[in-house]
Amino acid sequence: NASGTKFRSALRQLKETAALQDENGLDGVLIVGDLINDAYRDSMQYRQTKFFRKLYESELDPAKVPLVYTVGNHDVFRQWDGNTVREAKHLSDSLGEVFFKADAEPEMKDRYECRHCIIGKCHVFCVTPTSHEVPATYDPEALEWLDRRLKEVTAQDPDRYVLVLSHPMVYGTVYGSDLLCGKLAWYTEELREVLARYPQAVSFGGHLHFPLNDPRSIWQGEFTAMGCASVCYMAIEDGGYEDMAGKTIMKDRFEFSQGLLLQFDDRGNMRVTRMDFHNKAGIGEPWILSHPSKGGKHLRKYSHSVRKAVNEAPSLSSLTAAPDAEGMWTATFASGSDDEFVHHYILVLSRDGKEICRKKILSDFYRHPQTSGMKKTWSRALGVLPEGDYSLTLTAYDSWGAESNPINIKFKQ
Fold first, then answer.
1. What is the 3-state secondary structure (H, E, C) of 162-198?
2. Among 364, 339, 135, residue whose Cα is nearest residue 234
3. Residue 342 and residue 119: Cα distance in Å, rounded?
4. Where are the beta strands (DSSP E) in 335-406?
5. Distance between CA 110 and CA 106 in Å, rounded?
């Protein structure tokens, strides 16, 4: 199927890209949940997981390249609850023992679906929620275990990053980590208190499918956090944008597939390549993180507050409006300029001083691995307009919320 083809392509591209700089290639594959889609359908659980295993083994040997995953809400029957450990058993049953050779504490997986895996010199921890309430919560014993293990590992090697995988985002960190849709929270608050004690910790979250093109997809505060996007399809904030398939999903969401390639040098410095699997290219420039240092200096480079302070607002150059032969008016404008890119535009049409139309337009930043490929001009239909004096105003916004000076034109119908 289409999702399987995307997953296999992603594995192949990760393998090939890793080999360009390291003859040993990939040492492991990390997935922050949702290995399958239909765990709520009993007949599909084992079939989908076995298909997942077949895809993985078609590209990689799990005995040599371990797969480390945490349990996503699509992997179990009713989100996460008291039955999560039992319901997630189909994953380990279908994958088989060879997929768990990197596990240092198999008893934690059996009891809590928590994992401690060692890949080379890198420690990887996985934690699975026990509730999908607002926000997602974890077993207190699992949190105590994570805290204890992080303390031990970072004391032994304070200059090396430790990776923590959790399907929900840690609230208040990366792009989308504060998303709330109705009564469903897409984040957790409980992990932050634990991770904040360890500047070596790097949190990876899934659940959301937000694009890695956005600079907010990496965050540094007391620790480091990164979004992971999705191999399958994209989603975004509920921003009231035009031309959407739903509040948080776009019409072209399946023309999308992204992930991260992590590479460490001998000193523990980390290079993160954002991968656009759909376009078979790297996204922007790699994130370069120096190894953890005393005093937390390594946590400033990708701090949102630091980057926001030096951010430059976008600028606009042109806006026109004209009717066609049938009297249908269309607004046309040139793409805005920015030190990163324009995230979205707001176009406001007023008649005789009263606003009659407002269009919020998401830019195409998520479709292009490099900003140079983004659209150069935009147009939006304004409709057939009755007689009156009109004002049309355009404002551009970047990912940090900085807004351009607006362009305003006036015309008469």
1. EEEEECCEECCCCCCCCCEECCEECEECHHHHHHCCC
2. 364
3. 39
4. 342-351, 354-362, 377-384, 389-398
5. 6
Q: Are 174 and 227 in contact (CB under 8 A)?
A: yes
Distance CA 284, CA 263 (A): 17
Q: pLDDT tens for residues 289-311?
A: 999 998 899 999 999 999 999 99
Strands 218-220 and 224-227: antiparallel
Give the burial string for 265-301 (b: 16+ CB within 10 Å, else e): eeebbbebbbbbbbbeebbbeebebebbeeeeebbee
CA-CA distance, 346 to 348, in Å (whole number)? Answer: 7
Q: Is the pLDDT of residue 95 over 70?
A: yes
- Whether 356 shows a pLDDT value over 70: the answer reads yes
Q: How many residues does the chain have?
A: 413
Query: What is the secondary structure of 209-223 as a DSSP string?
Result: ---TTSGGGEEESSS
Dihedral angle at the C-alpha atoms of 213, 196, 194, 136, nearest 10 degrees? Answer: -40
Looking at residue 86, its pLDDT comes to 83
The amino acid occupying position 246 is G
Q: Judging by beta carbons within 10 Å of its beta carbon (0-12, 13-18, 19+), is residue 154 exposed, middle or buried?
A: buried
- pLDDT band for 40, please (50, 70, 90 cuts): low
- Distance, in Å, from the CA atom of 258 to the CA atom of 408, rounded to the nearest integer, reads 38
Report which of 378, 320, 317 is spatially closest to residue 344, judged by C-alpha positions. Answer: 378
Q: How far apart are CA 314 and CA 405, in angstroms?
A: 8
Tokens for 147, please give them: 């805290």
Give me Rg for the CA atoms of the chain.
Answer: 23
Tokens 């939006």, residue? Answer: 380
Q: What is the mean pLDDT of residues 345-363?
A: 96
Please tell me the distance from the alpha carbon of residue 263 to that of residue 70, in angstroms, as a whole number: 21
Helix 42-59 vs helix 2-21: angle between axes, to the nearest 10 degrees? Answer: 30
